[in-house]
Each structure stands twice: as C-alpha cells, then as structure tokens.
Design brief:
- There is one protein chain.
- By secondary structure, the chain is an alpha+beta fold.
- It has one domain (about 5-164).
- The chain has five helices and five strands.
- The protein has helices spanning about 5-15, 35-50, 60-80, 85-95, 140-145; strands at about 30-35, 80-85, 100-110, 110-115, 125-130.
- The strands form two sheets. It has a three-stranded antiparallel beta sheet, covered by helices on one side.
- A hairpin with a 2-residue loop joins β3 (about 100-110) and β4.
- α2 crosses α4 (about 85-95).
- It is globular and about 40 Å long.
- Mean pLDDT is about 40; it is low at about 15-40, about 50-65 and about 80-164.
C-alpha cells in the first residue's frame, strides 16, 4: 500500500470509531476540488467494478463512500466538493488497472448505475450520491458493493496487485 492509502486507512478507523463521522483532518491541505457530484459518483462506480473482481478490501470501499458522503455534504454548504487527493488518485490507479472494463449509465444528476461490461444487468446497482434514501445507508451501499466480490475471482490480474 502506498502512503496515501495507509493514511486513508488510519482515518477510516478513526471515522468508524465515531459512528462513521469523518474527522476534519481526513481532508489535509492536499485537496482535490470538483464542481459537482457526478465526478465522484463515477469514480465510485469505477471502483465498484474493481471491487467486484476482488481487488479491493471492504475497508477501502468504506473510505471512498465516507469521502463521497462528506463531499456531498460540503457541496450542499459551499457549492464545491473537496476530496483528498490520495482518495482520488487511489481511485484513478484502480480505474487504470489492466483488464478492467466498466459500464456506467447516469440515471440522473445524483445517481449513477454501474456494472461490468459483459455481465448480467441483474448485477448492476445504483449508488445514490445524496445518501438521502433510507435504503442507501453506508452499510447497505457497502454490502451491495462488497457482495459482488463473489464473482470473477478467477479473473484476477497479477499486475493489479502492485497497486496494493
């Protein structure tokens, strides 16, 4: 794991102890700013596809979901989304991992449907970036994503492991 992921994991543990509330120090001076929810929603979608292939731990997806939730709350208050560069860069290296193809369809401004190319549509799922639906709690989102690890473990690419 690179230094950014080690730092991320430490803050995730802190956040879990505080009932999934992110601490301010999670967002260091090294900040990545985007103007709308859809960017982070799509990054989360791409990460979800990699998780389905078993390349990412439950703790790591929890960190991304926590960051996404905090970012949407900040957007409502300030009109901007701020997310740690370490989180965004970790997602980017996952997106660029060999052998990963992702199908994503925007449902509306706040939701994105994701799945792997060539997979049954039954396995697609929707991430609500506003987290205002009773069924889209942290635990439910994490479990929906993590349950998909069961498929395609035989297709793991050794090159992907160097990212962790």
């Amino acid at each position: 794991m690179d230094e950014a992921m080690v730092i991320l994991n430490r803050h995730i543990k802190d956040a879990q102890e505080e009932r999934l509330e992110i601490k301010e120090e999670f967002f260091s001076n090294d900040v990545f700013v985007v103007n709308d929810c859809s960017y982070l929603a799509k990054q989360l979608g791409r990460l979800g596809a990699v998780i389905r292939r078993g390349h990412v731990s439950k703790v790591q997806i929890l960190g991304v979901i926590l960051a996404l939730n905090d970012a949407t709350e900040r957007m409502e208050k300030t009109g901007e989304i701020k997310a740690s560069k370490g989180v965004v860069n970790s997602m980017r290296c996952l997106v660029n991992a060999p052998g990963i193809e992702v199908l994503m369809r925007e449902v509306n401004d706040d939701m994105v449907e994701i799945g792997l190319v060539g997979e049954d549509n039954d396995d697609d799922f929707i991430v609500d970036t506003q987290n205002d639906d009773e069924d889209m709690t942290f635990d439910n989102v994490i479990n929906q994503v993590y349950d998909l690890i069961k498929n395609d473990l035989s297709n793991l690419k050794n090159e992907v492991l160097k990212y962790f």
